[in-house]
């Protein structure tokens, strides 16, 4: 049994003490912007800028590579965001996908009960207790006003499908990708002829009308998930699969550079378990605002396939030709957030150091996650032959990776700019390059420089990228 708190929350410092550092870097350099900013923004929705979209795409690609491409037992799926509304009744989301909400009688602001100061450690039983606010003397954190007893607030967004807006046309924006994999279990299993155990992986948008979103992209109302549902024989096989997936998911973050000491596992207490879960352990990260969930690994038993079988009349079972048994598979789920993962890689890679009396800011991003793999820089932009050679090298690199040319400052400043956005390598073309046909390759983290012949420079970068790949 994993201890609820594997390490002392105070013993591991966050990578960045103040979240504002990352928020302002993200805005300034084009990673993440507030949505609809010119209209004052919309709460809990964020837009990914030119560098952010590269980072997030690279995170999703890295996840897909590890979960689908490198495995023989996991296949992909891309189900719709809108699904038959009965899916969400059957899954339990219409009935119980809710958070405890309290309202201040004075300012009428609403809060998630478990995020109020003094209520963070409440058990799930307490969170459902109508007397808890009075019992603990909880007050509004803004104006100290009295708070209402908690009521359950359903997190699903709803809209109408078709031209008539009535009860019968209500559909929901999915709050998780998982249900798309469950209702497609037979389609996927029969078309791919996969034998159990096998998994279905999905990456896609999910929506939750969170009561108290915040901490930048940590909790949003529109976000992206990377979920994998692993179908196994009932009972012991699910326990074994859970025990295999949990460490491998934690190791994935470490393989892409997250500091191991800032990761820990936290087991859900029995009264904290989601309605579908037999067992759940979160991979948590030490964010600047505390230890928080990065990803959940869940043993969902046969809850999902049994419920959908009963409600739809389509029996979602599996026939094992080896044992001639028919059974409803159990599911082990790994449920991660693409935004939360990208945010974690961004924070954890942030470095500040003194170099020759100046502060050097860099993102020590894993090369595979970095938005640009390489920048090509001229030492003298006034020499057309140097600029022309830069463009030739960059054009060649661009066929295989994200590469960029920049000549808008002196070389020292150009290096700093690339450091700050996490570009692992810079190629500099100087006057000597025109004579000796070699260029300088500078490494972001060590700042060491190496002279490499122009003809071999692309291969050198390709080799470095391949060597870094987990
Ligand atoms: N299918 C199970 C499921 O959805 P979850 O723990 O509710 O489980 C999985 O969500 C992951 O999705 C979380 O660990 C987190 O990374 C991400 N996630 C959930 N809600 C989020 C939100 N409001 N904003 C950003 N990411 C979120």
Main structural class: alpha+beta
Largest sheet: 7 strands, mixed
What is the beta-strand fraction?
25-35%
Enumerate how many helices there are, as a single number. Answer: 15
Heterogens: glycyl-adenosine-5'-phosphate
Choose one word for the global shape.
globular
User: Number of DSSP strands?
Assistant: 23
N-to-C terminal Cα separation, in Å? 29 Å
Contiguous low-pLDDT stretches (5 residues minimum) are none
Read across the widest sheet, the strand sequence of neighbours is 3-9-10-16-13-12-11
Q: How confident overall, as mean pLDDT?
A: 95
Brief digest:
With 470 residues, the chain is an alpha+beta fold. 32% of the residues lie in helices and 27% in strands.
Per-chain topology:
Elements: H1 19-29, E1 32-34, E2 46-48, H2 50-69, E3 74-76, H3 85-90, H4 93-96, E4 98-103, E5 110-112, H5 124-127, H6 132-136, E6 151-154, E7 158-160, E8 170-172, H7 178-183, H8 185-192, E9 198-207, E10 222-232, H9 236-255, E11 263-267, E12 279-287, E13 290-301, H10 303-312, E14 318-320, E15 325-327, E16 330-337, H11 338-348, E17 350-355, E18 358-363, E19 374-378, H12 384-398, E20 403-405, H13 411-420, E21 425-429, H14 431-436, E22 438-443, E23 449-453, H15 454-468
Parallel strand pairs: 3-9, 19-20, 19-21
Antiparallel strand pairs: 1-2, 4-5, 4-6, 7-8, 9-10, 10-16, 11-12, 12-13, 13-16, 14-15, 17-18, 21-22, 22-23
Helix pairs in contact: 2-11
Bound molecules: glycyl-adenosine-5'-phosphate.
Glycyl-adenosine-5'-phosphate (GAP) binds at residues 176, 178, 208, 210, 219-220, 223, 225, 227, 293-296, 333, 335-337, 339-340.
């Amino acid at each position: 049994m994993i201890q609820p708190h594997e390490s002392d929350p105070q013993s591991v410092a966050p990578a960045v003490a103040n979240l504002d550092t990352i928020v302002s870097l993200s805005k300034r350099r084009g990673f993440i912007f507030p949505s609809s900013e010119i209209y004052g923004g919309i709460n809990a929705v964020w837009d990914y800028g030119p560098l952010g979209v590269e980072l997030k795409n690279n995170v999703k690609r890295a996840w897909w590579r590890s979960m689908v491409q490198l495995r023989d037992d996991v296949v992909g799926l891309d189900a719709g965001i809108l699904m038959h509304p009965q899916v969400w009744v059957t899954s339990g989301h219409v009935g119980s996908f809710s958070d405890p909400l309290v309202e201040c009688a004075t300012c009428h602001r609403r809060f998630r009960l478990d995020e109020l100061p003094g209520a963070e450690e409440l058990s799930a039983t307490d969170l459902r207790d109508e007397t808890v606010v009075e019992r603990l003397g909880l007050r509004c954190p803004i104006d100290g006003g009295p708070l209402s007893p908690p009521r359950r607030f359903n997190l699903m967004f709803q809209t109408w499908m078709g031209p008539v807006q009535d009860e019968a046309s209500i559909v929901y924006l999915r709050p998780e990708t998982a249900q798309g994999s469950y209702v497609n279990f037979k389609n996927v299993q029969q078309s791919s002829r996969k034998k159990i155990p096998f998994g279905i992986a999905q990456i896609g948008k999910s929506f939750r009308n969170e009561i108290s979103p915040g901490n930048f992209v940590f909790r949003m109302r529109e976000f992206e998930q990377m979920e994998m549902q692993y179908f196994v024989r009932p009972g012991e096989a699910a326990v074994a699969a859970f025990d295999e997936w949990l460490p491998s998911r934690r190791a994935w973050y470490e393989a892409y550079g997250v500091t191991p000491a800032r990761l820990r596992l936290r087991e859900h207490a029995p009264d904290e378990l989601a309605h579908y879960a037999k067992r759940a352990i979160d991979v948590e990260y030490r964010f600047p605002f505390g230890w928080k969930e990065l990803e959940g690994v869940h043993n969902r038993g046969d809850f999902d396939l049994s419920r959908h079988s009963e409600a739809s009349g389509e029996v979602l079972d599996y026939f094992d030709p080896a044992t001639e048994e028919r059974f409803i598979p159990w599911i082990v789920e790994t449920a991660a957030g693409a935004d939360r993962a990208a945010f974690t890689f961004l924070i954890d890679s942030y470095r500040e150091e003194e170099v020759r009396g100046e502060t050097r800011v860099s993102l020590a991003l894993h090369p595979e996650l970095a938005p640009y793999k390489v920048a090509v820089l001229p030492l003298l932009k006034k020499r057309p032959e140097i600029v022309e050679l830069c463009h030739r090298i960059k054009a060649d690199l661009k066929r295989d990776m994200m590469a960029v040319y920049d000549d808008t400052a002196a070389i020292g400043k150009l290096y700093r700019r690339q450091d700050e956005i996490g570009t692992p390598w810079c190629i500099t073309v100087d006057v000597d390059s025109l004579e000796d046909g070699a260029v300088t390759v500078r490494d972001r983290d060590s700042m060491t420089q190496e002279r490499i012949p122009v003809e071999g420079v692309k291969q050198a970068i390709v080799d470095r990228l391949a060597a870094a790949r987990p």
